Amino acid sequence: MARLTTGLDSIETWDQEASLQKFPLLQKLAFEFLSIPATTAAVERLFSATGAILTSRRCKMLPATLIARASVAMWMKDFEVSQKKKEEAKVKIVPE
Q1: Tens digits of per-residue pLDDT, 18-72?
Q2: How far is the C-alpha of 69 from the C-alpha of 89, rounded, in Å?
Q3: What whole-number distance in Å separates Cα of residue 16 and Cα of residue 22?
């Protein structure tokens, strides 16, 4: 029987074959949320999104609400970008 090791390195723990067999969805979530981005672009986009949401009229917004709205805004932006890329991939350049 495969056994998961416990240690301080969370990514290494979730990278084991045993975690894939027992918890495939949790393994995907672990890689999504435990990995460190290579750039700060995502953080800068998050600050930009929260700045657009948190205006003087919305200054009493709860932190959880702000996080939820910023997350949805970023997901929608990513979705729009992926849709645009799909559309561009469909367009074929025909030589004249």
Answers
A1: 777 888 888 788 777 777 666 777 778 778 878 888 887 878 888 898 888 888 8
A2: 30
A3: 10
**Residue-level pLDDT at 75:** 86
Judged on CB neighbours under 10 Å (0-12, 13-18, 19+), 70 is buried
What are 31's two structure tokens?
């890689």
Distance, first Cα to last Cα, the chain: 63
Distance CA 44, CA 48 (A): 6
DSSP code string of 32-46: HHHSPPSSSHHHHHH
